[in-house]
């Protein structure tokens, strides 16, 4: 019984919590405490999913709930998780308390609203990951935009409003096309259900609906690619990330779009996805290099982080559209890794900013001497982001690159350059900020090192970086069961090689 | 067909009329200085009774009365409920609005009630003469209501513009009716349908439809007949704008549905392209116009043009689906737009001192609850899921796609993307900008009636967005009456006008 | 006879309408409109609508237009100023009106044979005929008209009245 | 041939009626002057002709020969048009009024110019057009007294027209026709008892009609438009000579019209007050002319009443006048319509 | 001699078009309003003509209702005009432009 309703509870508890937060007294720490407790509870509940995951079930979804919502058009409240979404749900639950901890003292103005919106976007995230009905999915997808935009706008730095509107429009307008595509699908098939759609669309790529299907798949792709973002569509990312408060920057990019690409593009339109794959792979490669190169020349830490994020996310895109078992597994794994490491990175940047009031590298320098603990955490995170073996990103990046080498060797080679660049700008950044002679700005201010609360937020991520780098198989089990099945048939030619790669891990 | 007392067919209208007359009678015995709130309460109770009566009408078998001039069916009941709901909320919201600012408050309630009678009759009449008369009742009362802030310079101006263009439109609509009459020899919708199906000159009928479309296009402010909308909405008192941007439009759309599908069903291929053009123009002009506005009321005016365009998209869909979608959309649009103007009226007061975008800077801090409600309505206007606006658009575009108008849906949804920008600008202004001390500190207090009205609207927005089933069923039942109309036309032929 | 009357009063109608357009003083326009309305009354007579003809005179010429003239006098509306109207009115208006006229006229012209013709006494509606339809088949619209008038009265009071 | 006779006879009829009517107008003026004189304990005109009977002629010549002044700043066409409208409207009404029994000679109705199905409406319609004469005269004179006078007058006429129109509805309901002959025919069975004023229970309606008619003709006690103490001569101010004469004639013609209509509607028209009590006597000529006598007698009574009222009642104040019209007369008229229709409905 | 109904209709179309045109180019509110009345009259003529064509009484009754409506509109419209004049002292539509169109 719990299995059937756990996802629903997980999804709607935060929304309920948001309402409670608004009603709590505004003075004091009540909103933080309440939100922290709630997110911890959610995390505990989310852990129920992997704990009871049935690894014997090869196909389909678990913890499913499927009840009619609206009679006509035929919309169901259909939720469930598989190996792909389960970890994402856990990931979201894991990051939420950290976000609360890191915002603990940063957000003082309009606190209740902040935590309410934070919880609301939590609902939207869960919803996106567990929805198996297109409309339900779309509802949460759209819903996720509003709280994020508000959070950026209300709690952003200087140009928060512009960044928020930019983000919203970038996300919203392609969504309109997505909706058209969905409605077209419904008009043709009479269902919004993922599973039924997959079955019905089978073989349509060559049938009379080929053109419509092709356009629909493009509409879907566009909406998701913007949200990732994929290379030419990343206009909102820099402002969004550099303006967003830390807790928001942690969840802004990546997960939703990448997950959607896999679930609703690759898995729903395998043939069309295979057709567009070369383009996507190329764009991913460009994104990797472009992000990395721009990151090299940034002086603002948040902007550097933004371009680094673009570069890292492009890796995931590359992995997905390379369409080999290894690359796709790697891409999914990399989503988790990237989220964790980038979150840690953003939290650290947030702490730095809190201490010194700037993201400008020129003003920072020699921080390590002042805050050794922070420096340690920072370096570990940096190494993780660079892809140091035994840390989490290495596994993902390696799988992606090795997988994509088989299908797109030249592009993969180019992408490898990206890793080198990333090592360059990250290390250079660490060198400029933490080492060398302390700048006047830093010496002028006496600030405490990371406190217990920040440590409580940071150490779990570091622990996970290591755990995921060392014991990747634990996570891979569920992913491996689900993700390769999503790949178009085109990839089967490489099964033999994949098997070999698979055996190495 | 079982015999139903004719009075039951127009029971809601009768109740509302009686209430209106009572309001006027009581007004005349109240002292000059006495508060007019009891009259408002009376009007509210009358409206409630009307709503109950409308619901009761659902139990009657669909049928006509008074020699085939009015018909009560699920379709009319749906629109009765929408209009009744709008009126109810408008009354609640404006209970304190005019108090102490106008010496004609009692007349205000009476006008709203009588106007509602006209609108309701529009939705239930199947005789174009009846439509015309009730259209005029609703129009004239809204012309007057638009000019209610007599001391301001803009309100009479709004009133005269509304009046002139409205009457202009009426003349077109009337010419359309005349041509219809000329083509078929009758002004009864079912008789016209018979004429359309066989015999009558399609040329004359098409011209007639064109003229009626122009007339109704003005009334519902479709582009290119929208020129009056921004000015009128800017000048008229905010609660009135909430009313007149929704209720008369809902009624006019109901009429248009009855004419298009009820009478002109078989000529759909002829009028469909006209509707396409109007839909695209309205959506585009409305949204682009709204983008450039600095005045919130004008912005919402352009947005209402755009929404009328979305609604027209539903017209292009096949009969039952399109009708249901259009009906649902009117309800959804009513909930959010009345709400937006209600909040506007609350924040800017009778003097309308807070109408520019910049006046809303940081409102969220000073009036957090009002701002939150406004945000809900705006988000619904954008079309974010779990709100009425989303499902409204969803059904409209589903209907359009089902009938193969994918390109129309694409244009529409892209438009709604553009639309998001200007709603968002206002949202951003409220939430993300720190307050500039441009507007003097105001001492607006939310009265219980106002809070109740807005609460009803917020609930409606969410109810239609999360559990739209019930409303949808009713809308679909209404649409089904059109399908059954072919048979009804035969039953009714005995009762129509003698030659 | 019929034809002659039609031509005379039809031309008076048109002349009055054009004069309304050309005159710059509102009162002259109003008088032209009265001419149009009265000529129309004669045309109604020709078409067998005798009651209507008189109603036209009483209601339109005798009541509505008096109201217009009254207001013109009350506000002492002077010569119309030749300000530049909105250019859109000219740009879109003139072709629009042309198109409207062309459409209507060509429609009527195309269908001219099917409409037949009217002769004096061919179709005469007596007051009894009228009332029989009005108070039976069209009873509801008739009753509802009372609400319309009520609204109009309210409106006149509200708008023209002074704030107390 | 027959048609030619018809046309000739009709034209002749029109000419005769017009001459008689205008003469009657002239002598109504004399009547008034005489009567008012008597009421005020003086003689009135008595020098021109025996008992002053040629006085109207002298007045007419004076007015015709006077210099016609036309002020510079008037709106010329309208200034000239206004009296023409006023007089012609006053003259048109007589065209539909029947003076006696329907007696035909060569197919021509001898005592009525045109017998229309909607005669009553024609009279109401013409009356309503008459307002323009006054409205335009005031406006075109370009004079504040004229304008105010005509504004007052117009408002007054519009206001009382409603009561006037409503007051005749009871009569029409009883008859079921708008043809004036039908209306009289209903009343000529039992003499005075079947007149509408008694038999048709239209006493109140008669009162309303009477009052409204006084106002419509701008007569005392409702002659505010020309209240000389405040507005000099009201809308007449700028008029002189022939044009003034036209207004003057129009006023008295209207008085006669109103009297005729009142007679037809309420006082049994040409029917004898004794009904069948009086045995028929005399030849066909007497038979034909006797009703005309009754008709003229009744109209004369009416005119007498007009003058009598003028001689005795003071003038209303303007707000009293409007209040009386809207707040008393109009509701009374509506009540009368309701009561009459209910009574008719119960009677069967 | 009979007159084709179509002539009446064409006359009505002409009157209507003149009304529309006057509505567009006239600059005095009252005159604009009068052109609307002209349009309504044109419609009435069409109704009467069609009533003659179909030998239908209802066509003529329509005209009554139009008259009533026109009267109601006139009452309200002129009241609005008076209200506007009170606040603006002008009847020129080009000067009644506090709000941009």
- Secondary-structure element string of chain D: HHHEEHHHHHHHHH
Summarize the amount of helix of chain A as a percent range. over 70%
Biggest pleated-sheet summary of chain A = 2 strands, antiparallel
Helix run count of chain A: 22
User: Span between N and C termini of chain D?
Assistant: 49 Å
Strand order of the largest sheet of chain A: 1-2
Radius of gyration from the alpha-carbon trace of chain D, in angstroms? 21 Å
Poorly predicted regions of chain A: 490-505
Number of strands of chain A: 2
- Overall mean pLDDT of chain A stands at 85
- Inertia-based shape of chain A: globular
- H and E order of chain A: HHEEHHHHHHHHHHHHHHHHHHHH
In short:
The complex is a heteropentamer of chains A (505), B (499), C (164), D (348) and E (101). With 164 residues, chain C is an all-alpha fold.
Structure description:
The complex is a heteropentamer of chains A (505), B (499), C (164), D (348) and E (101). Chain A has helices at residues 2-23, 30-51, 83-103, 111-130, 134-155, 160-189, 194-201, 210-227, 235-243, 246-252, 255-266, 270-296, 301-322, 325-356, 367-370, 372-386, 392-407, 409-434, 440-444, 452-470, 472-486, 495-504, and strands at 62-70, 75-81. With 505 residues, chain A is mostly helical. Chain A has a domain at 287-505. In chain A, helix 3 runs parallel beside helix 14, helix 10 (246-252) packs antiparallel against helix 14 (325-356) and helix 13 runs antiparallel to helix 14 (325-356). The two termini of chain A are 36 Å apart. Residues 490-505 of chain A have low confidence and may be disordered. With 164 residues, chain C is an all-alpha fold. Chain C folds into two domains: 2-79 and 86-125, Up-down Bundle (Four Helix Bundle (Hemerythrin (Met), subunit A)), CATH 1.20.120.1200; 126-164. Chain C contains seven helices and one strand, in the order H-H-H-H-H-E-H-H. The model of chain C has no long low-confidence stretch (mean pLDDT 85). Chain D is mainly alpha-helical and 348 residues long. Chain D contains twelve helices and two strands; from the N terminus they run αααββααααααααα. Chain D is globular, with a radius of gyration of 21 Å. Chain E is elongated. In chain E, 78% of the residues lie in helices and 2% in strands. Chain E has a domain at 27-90: Helix Hairpins (Orthogonal Bundle). With 101 residues, chain E is mainly α. Chain E starts with a strand and ends in a 13-residue tail after the last helix. Chains C and E meet through helix 1, helix 2, helix 3, helix 4 and strand 1 of C and strand 1, helix 1, helix 2 and helix 3 of E.
